[in-house]
Every structure is written in C-alpha cells, then in structure tokens.
Amino acid sequence: MIPYATILTQPYGYRSSDVASYRERIIQEVSQTDCEWILWNCSLSIAHRGARASIPMPPHIPAHVVCICMNGSPLYWRKAWLLAALARWNDRLPAARFLPYDLLPVDPSLTMHLHAAHNPPYQKELEYILPILSATRMRESAASPEGTLSFKPSRQPAVSILMSIHNMKDTLGWSIRSVLAQSAENWELLIGDDGSEDESLEEACTIQDGRIRVMSQSRNRGKAIMMNRLLAEAKGHYILELDGDDWLAPETVALLSDALDKNPEGRVATGRYGCWERTRQLGPLWRRNADSGKLYTEWSPSFNRSHEHGHPLVPRMYRKSSLIAIGGWWNREDRFGRIFEDIDLTARLLKHSSPVRVDALLYHRVIYGNSTSQRNRSLFEAWYQETMRG
C-alpha cells in the first residue's frame, strides 16, 4: 500500500479571507509531512468522516498523475504538485470547501479517475459551481506568457452587465468570476460602488480585464440611482442585472441575448434560477430550482395583491432601448426608493407584455437574513399602496 498523509484541517466560511486562511493552513500542514501523497477532500472530511478507510489508494499510479479523483471528487494529491498549486492559487470561491476542486489540473491526463458506490456530498452545489471553476481555469491557462489576459473591450458589446454594490467584498469576487466564465465573450461588466464602507471597491478593481469598468460614489444613495448611472455608461444593446452576492451560469449571456435577438418585440428575457441559502460555516447551500417568469406572464393588480412580499423577476436581461423609454429605475432616495426597485421597474416595463422565457437555469440567487430584500419584506404592502396604486 502506498503511504499517504491525511489533511485534518477543516474548511470554514464563505469570505475570501476565510478561503485565504484555509489555504495557508493547508500549505502548512502539507509541508510538515514526509509522505509523497496527500489525502485531502473538503466535502469528504465533513460529511463522510468514517469513509476514509473504505477508499484505499490504487496499487499502481502512473508517474505523471498528480491527482486521483473518486466519482469526480478530488481525493489524493501528489505532495509536490499540490504545494506548487496552492502557492500559485489566488482566486475567488463561494466557500472554502471548494478549494480542492479549483486546484484540479487543467490537463486531464494528469488526473486519475476512480469510482465508488457513494457520490461526493454537496453534489447539487458542485453541479452548478464546477462549470465556472473549469471555464475560468481554462481562461487563465490561455493568458499570455506575461500573465496578462488577451480579452480586450469591444467598441460595441452585445450585453452590458450592470452591478451596483454596497459592502459586498466577501461575495463580489465570485460574482465577477461567474461573468468571466461566460461562454459568450462579447460583454462588458460595469460595477458601481455605492459608497461602500468595506473593501468592495478594491475587490472590484482586483481583476484586470478590459471589459470591466468600475465606478464609485462616496455617499451611499441607493441601488436605483447607481443603476441609472451605470445605464448611462452602458454600450450594449442589452442590459443584464447581476447582484454582487449572486452569480451567473456560464450560458446566461448567450441564451438570454439570443432569446431577445429572436423576439424583437420582447422587452425583457428571463429564465429559471437556483435559490441558495447562505450559511456562515459552509457558504451557499442549494435549496431549490425556481421560475419567477411564470408569475409575470400577465402583470395585473391581482398579481401584486396575491404576492404580499413581492417577488422580483430573476434573471433579468432588458432591451436597453426599452429601459431608456421608461426612464430607467425609480430615481429617489427616500425609504421606498431603496427597496423593491426591480419589481417597480419590471411592472412598468411589462405593463402590456410578458417576458421572453428561456427554459434553463441561468442565475443563482443567494438568500440570507440580513440582505436588503429580506429585511424589508414586511414593507411590501405599504410600498405597493404608495407606488403601484399611487
């Protein structure tokens, strides 16, 4: 049997600092062992502590193999290669527990695959996170020898992705990474920092890509005002909203823009979204597949009355000309000007039409108790009476 050392350090948290701290502890632990091979798997160590003994090392490992996966989950690592990969790694993840998946070799020949009766835990989460990891690792490997990325801004991007942020340094990096993972490359990302009091602005400026533009204002004035500012700067025919604590599926830009291309009268395109719950220890956990587009097939007062807490259309790709025609977002700074901005905008935009719907899961929405939408759910009735009924 080939000897190996087992990593005991457990992943914790969803913040970029949590991931960085976990990485440093893993480097320290791996450096202290004399074994050539390391047994390390975040999800296995949390949910299947007793399963290690039933997963023996394969008796014969080709010399070029550096990682051994079990049912797609990385499990055994060649020590020297792992240390080098950890030393190079500097990216963003939705939680620390996904770090080993982000270190998988881009060259598939370096990985050996085994199969067992059990599947790795968090299978649903991995289904939606692994494609982003894979796409961005491949993108990084295509960088020039100087380490710069080859993508340059287009004079006329097809899609402008608008993101208004306020104190989102812990989740913003992963949201941006999901944009970089898009299969369609003719986009621009406009990030507006709305008076953040943390390092959100610094985080927004971390990634060097000519398609990303960052703006800021010193005073927090609310999402609607920042979105109108970003809209004025947008060059794309279509506008896609993205919150700084959510993320996109890799096909989102391609499928939604194609849907609007094929429906020239359509004002908004949408699809299905994944609903996640944020936890302090494990980060986002999968909850359900949702389709808010079904609720918007006909906009009417009865719709609003039957949904007391309100439900935004998710995702939302607008035709830019339609947004401009209705004057954009509700541009006011009182308490009702800072909540349910997207429901108001969608109501006005779809007053006499329905959204173009794509039957695919294209957006990932993370719910947590301290978010603006969750804190203000009880105000929907009062907001509705003042804004929708005048």
TrEMBL record:
Belongs to the glycosyltransferase 2 family. GO terms for molecular function: glycosyltransferase activity. Residues 160-291 form the Glycosyltransferase 2-like domain. Gene3D superfamilies: Spore Coat Polysaccharide Biosynthesis Protein SpsA, Chain A (3.90.550.10). PANTHER family: GLYCOSYLTRANSFERASE, GLYCOSYLTRANSFERASE EPSE-RELATED. InterPro entries: Glyco_trans_2-like (IPR001173), Glycosyltransf_2 (IPR050834), Nucleotide-diphossugar_trans (IPR029044). The keyword RNA-binding does not apply. Keywords: Glycosyltransferase, Transferase. It comes from the Bacteria. This is Glycosyltransferase family 2 protein.
